[in-house]
Design a protein that fits this description.
heterodimer; A: 214 residues; alpha/beta; Rossmann fold; 6-stranded parallel β-sheet; 4-stranded mixed β-sheet; 12 strands; B: 475 residues; 2 domains
Chain lengths: 214, 475
């Protein structure tokens, strides 16, 4: 194995004999492009893009969040709901559902997760321009399987987590954490390049966008 | 349950002749490529002038990385190891296949689930695993269709692009039962029903699989992060639920820093599926305790890439981020489809990448640089500004300058007789827009075989590039 490592690296170096030895290895880019590409209200754009990708979206005043979560779960008919270890306890205070907790000491199996009706989480970042929600497996989101196996994902996004465009989103994220970028429910364009929503990931994504009570 | 191979396929002119006679395939391709072009134009247009700035930055990042690839490979290796992953180096396909086979055998498993990956298609990993008694299940919908149909991929992004919904339905009904959960009785050809059938077919497999094999769209040197973009969630299933993950990644997939992803996460989805963002992107850095596979292996693959790197003109092909925009815009691809190129990398990028990776020792590989009208549309849409026509002409010169079989010699001689030199041929064809009506309906030499079976595409009054530039100026 060591032999191939040296062989490949030697081939690379030989292939690059035209590159001047004093050419700097580190690059310091001067990025000329914009952080965002739209005019208008960031939260409105996020809602517009989420709807465009067939997610369900509601804007919610903070004080109403527990009630709106309960209402969403009831609408969905979700009786057994997977819960990440650090979900704020007040979020499910008004929901009459069975909470299926996933904790590090006793993780649910894939089959257990498959037997739930959905999952409720927070998020790390949301990118308005692309309608993207990023999960970073923090305690209010749980490990990645939690938001993958259940067929319904109810995600709470706080307005201060929303950024305009991709560059700001990337800056806010920690690559050391496992990240999942989600833009709408699972979909495929593999049949005649027509987009069809709902394949292996959650087939329904519902977003509650929370703003401070005004 | 055998896997097809491109090995032994006839050279492009011969394969193209039969491909264009297949009217159903041509219909499917026309419909699909025109659909995707429209979507791409819309989402690229949304970024206005910034698209060209992002494109220039994408080009600059990739060019810089390639010029210092040894440095970044070592950096990536160190970062992945630090994060708990194991790094393997494979000089060629056989070595990569042997590494993956050994790693799977060490787990004691005899099946793996696969995320769509061009690198593993290139090395024909599934055949190698099959020979070792290991079943590889493709989980991307299009790859699944190709695998069930014992077919070959014909497009980088959508390997089953040559098939229409009715054909896909037939394949599901005929073949799903051989591999696992059968297609439901009464399956219709509604894409929703077909996607649902795929979900049911693969569900239990995802939940039980212990080993997954993937590629990666990007490997970040400074953080050791691997990135996979996908749509269906099959990627997430494979990258998250199994205990062992083996990722086979070409050495050119590196970007230096995490922040470089802000460029490529804008360029790639808009160029490939014509979306502002693909439904799912997964990133992982080594192993995360309690979350996802606890055993992670990165196999760094050369397999001819260092030969491409050694060619100062041809090396730009290694910037490719596999978006497929050049396939979707190409008048030749639209008419012949992907199979005629005899490679997992079809279309304009395949015409420059395949012969460089494989070394142009076979007639099939030597014919590929001629599978183009040099119209330049591929360069215009490339998100990392690979000048495909420049490399095509460069490779034609190489073919012509070596002891070539008579066909290629004859082609170059014929072309030179008409246009004076290959460089002049390039210039003349790029200028074809102003020569409408003066262009012969048949090309000389080997390319004549190509025009035997079809009309040369009508040359638009205005080239794409000219239209684009005027459009940009008007903003």
């Amino acid at each position: 194995m060591g032999g191939s490592r040296e062989r490949v690296l030697a081939r690379v170096r030989a292939a690059l004999s035209d590159v001047p030895a004093d050419e700097p290895v580190e690059r310091h880019p001067h990025r000329s492009y914009a952080d965002g590409h739209f005019e208008g209200d960031t939260l409105e754009v996020l809602v517009d893009r989420l709807l465009d990708y067939k997610a369900l979206v509601e804007r919610v005043p903070e004080s109403e969040l527990p009630g709106r979560i309960a209402a969403a779960l009831e609408r969905r008919g979700a009786a057994r709901v997977a819960v990440p270890p650090g979900l704020p306890s007040e979020w499910l205070a008004e929901a009459s559902v069975e909470r299926v907790g996933d904790v590090p000491d006793a993780p649910l199996s894939s089959m257990d997760l498959d037997a739930t009706d959905g999952v409720v989480t927070g998020c790390a970042v949301a990118i308005a321009e692309t309608g993207t929600i990023v999960l970073d497996a923090s305690p209010d989101q749980g490990r990645r399987a939690l938001t993958l196996v259940p067929d319904y994902h109810l995600c709470v996004v706080r307005s201060d987590q929303v950024v305009d465009g991709v560059p700001e989103g990337v800056r806010r994220l920690d690559p050391a954490r496992p990240l999942t970028w989600i833009s709408g429910p699972s979909a495929t364009s593999d049949i005649e390049l027509n987009r069809v929503e709902g394949v292996h990931g959650p087939r329904t994504l519902e977003v509650l966008l929370v703003e401070a009570d005004g | 349950m055998s896997s097809a191979t491109f090995l032994g396929m006839p050279p492009f002119p011969e394969a193209a002749r039969s491909a264009v006679e297949d009217s159903r395939t041509r219909h499917n391709l026309h419909k699909a490529t025109h659909t995707i072009r429209g979507k791409r134009d819309a989402v690229v247009g949304e970024l206005g002038d910034d698209w060209q700035r992002l494109r220039a930055e994408g080009e600059a990042v990739k060019t810089h990385t390639l010029r210092h690839l040894d440095h970044y490979l070592e950096k990536l290796e160190e970062s992945v190891r630090r994060a708990g992953g194991t790094v393997h180096w494979a000089a060629d396909a056989d070595e990569a296949n042997a590494i993956v086979t050994r790693l799977v055998k060490q787990t004691g498993e005899s099946e793996v689930v696969k995320v769509k990956s061009m690198a593993t298609q290139e090395i024909e990993l599934n055949n190698a695993l099959e020979a070792a008694g290991i079943t590889a299940y493709e989980t991307d919908l299009a790859e699944l269709i190709v695998q069930l149909g014992e077919d070959l991929p014909s497009h980088i992004l959508v390997p089953a692009i040559h098939l229409g919904r009715a054909q896909i339905r037939e394949i599901f009904l005929d073949k799903m039962a051989e591999w696992g959960v059968p297609a439901p009785e009464g399956l219709t050809d509604d894409p929703r029903a077909l996607a649902e059938a795929a979900r049911v077919h693969l569900r239990e497999l995802f939940l039980r699989a212990k080993v997954a094999v993937s590629g990666a769209n990007f490997a970040v040197a400074d953080s050791g992060t691997l990135v996979v973009l996908e749509s269906e969630g099959n990627g997430r299933m494979c990258l998250t639920l199994p205990e062992t993950l083996i990722s086979v990644v070409g050495i050119e997939k590196i970007v230096p820093t995490w922040s470089d992803l802000e460029v490529f996460m804008q360029l790639l989805p808009r160029s490939s599926t014509g979306e502002r963002m693909n439904p799912y992107t997964s990133t992982w850095t080594g192993v995360t305790p309690g979350d996802g596979p606890q055993d992670f292996h990165l196999v760094l693959l050369d397999n001819g890439r260092t030969d491409v790197l050694a060619d100062t003109v041809g090396r730009q092909a290694l910037r490719c981020i596999r978006c497929s925009a050049c396939l979707n815009i190409c008048p030749v691809y639209e008419r012949t489809g992907g199979h005629a190129y005899g490679s997992v990398y079809p279309g304009p990028i395949g015409a420059i990448l395949t012969p460089q990776l494989k070394g142009m020792s076979s007639e099939a590989d030597r014919a590929l640089p001629y599978a183009s009208s040099l119209c330049g549309a591929c360069y215009d849409v490339c998100p990392v500004a690979i000048d495909i026509p420049e490399v095509l002409v460069h490779l034609r010169e190489q073919v012509a300058s070596t002891e070539a079989p008579l066909g290629e010699k004859a082609l170059m001689a014929g072309a030179e007789a008409v246009f004076g030199s290959s460089t002049a041929l390039d210039a003349a064809q790029r200028a074809a827009g102003v020569m409408r009506g003066a262009v012969p309906k048949h090309l000389p030499g080997l390319a004549g075989k190509w025009t035997d079976t079809r009309d040369i595409p009508d040359i638009p009054e205005e080239s794409f590039r000219k239209w684009w530039n005027e459009r940009e100026e008007g903003r």
